[in-house]
Amino acid sequence: MPSVAPKASIAGLVAGKPALAGAPTGARIVRLHLNEGALGPSPRAIAAMREMVGRIDRYPGIDASGLVVALGQKHGIDPARIVLGCGSDELIQFLCLAYVEPGEEVIHTQYGFVQFPIATRIAGGIPVSAPDDGFTASVDAILERVTARTKLVFLANPNNPTGTALPAEEVRRLRERLPDRVLLVVDAAYAEYVQRPDYTAGIELVEATDNTVMLRTFSKAFGMAGLRLGWAYCPQPVADVLYSVRPPYGVNSPSLAAAVAAVEDQAFQDATVAHNARWMPWLQERFRELGLEPMPTAANFMMVRFPAEPGRNAEAVRPFLAGRGILVREMAGYGAPAYIRLSVGTEDENRLLVDAVRDFLNGANS
Ligand SMILES: *Cc1c(COP(=O)(O)O)cnc(C)c1O
Q1: Residue from 32, 115, 228, 231 to probe ligand 1 pocket by mutation (most atoms less than 8 Å from CB)
Q2: What pLDDT does residue 27 have?
Q3: Model-wide pTM > 0.70
Q4: Which CATH code, of 3.30.70.920, 3.90.1150.10, 3.30.479.30, 3.30.70.260, is assigned to 8-40+267-361?
């Protein structure tokens, strides 16, 4: 036993592990395991970041005004209610730390994003899981789990790892039926990719209520996961609370400069969405031809069901692909061991992936 014990609420949390286990060293690595954007960052973002590097002797502005103004213009929203974080993961933590008292409950969905229960426990709260309907979030199941101690509900829409999304009407129904004292956090990390006409990221709900927050990130469609930059659009009182708890200079100036340029590069964003719209159906068709079951998805990643036979199952395919330098995500930790999760890559990466999966199913040894 160590001399100093951490908080009881975080007992059992495990340290994150590197994902490269089993990958050949020095070989080309195809990263399809973290839902990163396929096209990398906008060249304009890289140029803007380079230019800012020479000015890192200065603190960034507390309100990071350049970026919140750019985001406000792009989305037609109030910049004063945008709060930036070192990734939206950090904003998830700040929301829990600022709103959840020890012993209060935070609802997430059964196959919801892993950071939700972790952030809940760091704050001393109690994570409550609401069963999915199939692999889609169930508004009714969430509502059934509301108690007098419920403080916050996290809904990732589209959800990671399932890729499924709820229509705007269902999210609105959730907000309407939740008690006003419950903060609803809609994490729209993949909103840019969604092409369903009945989907919205949640901006209108944030505007219409004083207890709904929308989270966004530069890690996925913007191809800038390494920047660590996310943002929350909040009712003014929530924005004020987040500004009061977050470190004043929590977001670095080269990242801010890159993000402004990325927000202004509409052509790059269009290319990203078009790439996904082309290659997601292509991958799904190839997997179906191979006898696999890809799940429907609204995002840039999908879950794929593998056969049950030993040697051809999801458990075996991850190390097989890793041996070829292709990284995908196992789903056993989420309680869906028949599946793997993988994201759309470049054309070249997608073809390498399909060839490797075909070889695997045909019984190749490596
Ligand atoms: C990837 C992801 C995020 C983004 O996290 P960052 O910290 O901004 O990189 C947030 N929520 C969900 C559901 C995600 O899948």
Answers
A1: 115
A2: 79
A3: yes
A4: 3.90.1150.10
